[in-house]
Design goal:
Blueprint lengths: L16 E2 L3 E3 L5 E3 L7 E2 L10 E4 L2 E4 L4 E2 L1 E6 L13 E6 L13 H4 L2 H9 L5 E2 L2 H10 L4 E4 L8 H13 L3 E6 L5 H7 L5 E5 L5 H7 L5 H13 L3 E8 L7 H15 L5 E5 L14 H13 L5 E4 L31 H4 L7 H6 L8
Helix pairs in contact: 3-4, 8-9
Bound molecules: iron/sulfur cluster (SF4) (2 copies).
One iron/sulfur cluster binds next to loops.
Length: about 375
């Protein structure tokens, strides 16, 4: 299994970046071990997230340095309340997610299938921002930290880790906003690089998780959250309360009890409000009474820091400022993202040949 660092000279121009955690499986496939899908991929195939591709037996991340959105705000907006309160963070996300939530608000960014297809075809003009440049943008924006959010950070962990190292070198903290469907190996790579995990606990019902990700179970998600805490990462949790789906007393009480018993009575729990979207457009916004009831249950189970947000949903759900607002005048921001000649060579368009051979061009899951 590879876990090699990325050399600085490799990351300053757009190119395919070797997937950090990959191994050759007995079946002849190459397995990605970044998230718990553990996709086994043949030459030409892309993983569930669409952000990793097998080329001739090696997995590569397509989205290294590709930014879908940025924004600046207080850390409390993530939401995180017990780490450096009142400080500002630069939030940044790419394309691709390991889940397919029915109520996801920002499919173009979070799932990003069209953007990732364009990258695979070598036709993308999405913003490419190397780690050093991103940290420079953060410093120029006057923030104290960088948050990886909007989609699942595990699917571009290569970039997250490189940025986190540069950010720490410059005294910035790092926040990772996650669905926690991640492997133990990927969590181990976060140790010492990520300061804060803000994780969803969407439900205590396996059926709920299986409906948004066929492979996910409650135990896997909870285990990842606990592992992160054991690694010394500051952990806060969030539940987006969805009417008729996860809002029953039994479910909310069980989430609160798990947090109390496994993360501690001091561990913050953020209760946010669902707003209708996508396949759940017919589900009403969460009544404020349901949020207050969840908070009451949290306090009854012994949690000392429960926060209710009548005006806030999932972090994936926000409208975000264009990347150009933070990197004005930077020439290479929206150049076409193609591999260097030394990578794809005369094959020309990035991956096109491989995807055509595998009959995958434009394929969706
Ligand atoms: S990060 Fe993507 S390719 Fe890797 S296991 Fe997860 S879904 Fe599959
Ligand atoms: S809501 Fe979050 S975890 Fe779910 S699909 Fe959207 S980005 Fe992924």
């Amino acid at each position: 299994m590879t876990g090699a660092k990325t050399s600085a000279e490799n990351r300053d121009v757009y190119r395919l970046m070797p997937t950090r955690l990959q191994e050759t499986a007995d079946s002849g496939k190459t397995r990605c071990n970044l998230c718990l899908w553990r996709c086994g991929l043949h030459h030409g195939q892309r993983g569930f997230c669409q952000a990793h591709v097998n080329r001739n037996g090696t997995l590569y991340n397509l989205s290294y340095g590709i930014i879908s959105a940025m924004d600046v705000g207080v850390i409390e907006d993530k939401p995180v309340r017990h780490y450096r309160p009142g400080t500002q963070v630069l939030s940044v996300g790419s394309y691709g997610c390991s889940f397919r939530c029915g109520g996801c608000h920002n499919l173009e960014i979070s799932w990003g299938t069209e953007a990732l297809d364009e990258l695979a075809r070598g036709e993308s003009r999405a913003a490419f921002v190397p780690p050093d440049q991103l940290v420079r943008a953060a410093i120029q924006s006057g923030v104290q930290g960088i948050a990886f959010t909007y989609s699942e950070p595990a699917v571009w962990l290569e970039y997250v880790l490189d940025v986190a190292e540069v950010a720490h070198d410059h005294g910035l903290y790092t926040v990772y906003v996650s669905n926690s469907f991640v492997t133990e190996e990927a969590l181990a790579l976060l140790k010492g690089r990520i300061d804060v995990l803000c994780s969803d606990i969407k439900s205590m019902d396996d059926t709920f998780y299986r409906n948004i990700c066929a492979r996910a179970s409650v135990d896997q998600v909870l285990m990842s959250i606990k592992t992160a805490q054991n690694l010394g990462i500051h952990v806060e949790t969030r539940t987006n309360v969805i009417p008729g789906y996860n809002d029953k007393d039994k479910n909310m009480g069980a989430i609160a009890k798990w947090i109390h018993d496994h993360l501690g009575s001091q561990s913050p729990w953020h209760v946010t409000r669902f707003h209708p979207a996508y396949r759940m457009a017919d589900v009403p916004s969460t009544p404020v009474q349901s949020l207050e009831r969840a908070a009451e249950l949290g306090r009854e189970r012994g949690l000392e820091h429960v926060y209710v947000y009548a005006d806030k949903g999932c972090d994936c759900a926000t409208e975000n400022a264009p990347v150009t607002d933070f990197l004005p005048g930077w020439a290479s921001l929206h150049e076409v993202n193609k591999c260097a000649d030394t990578c794809c060579g005369k094959d020309g368009i990035l991956l096109g040949r491989y995807e055509r051979e595998a009959g995958l061009t434009g394929a969706r899951r």
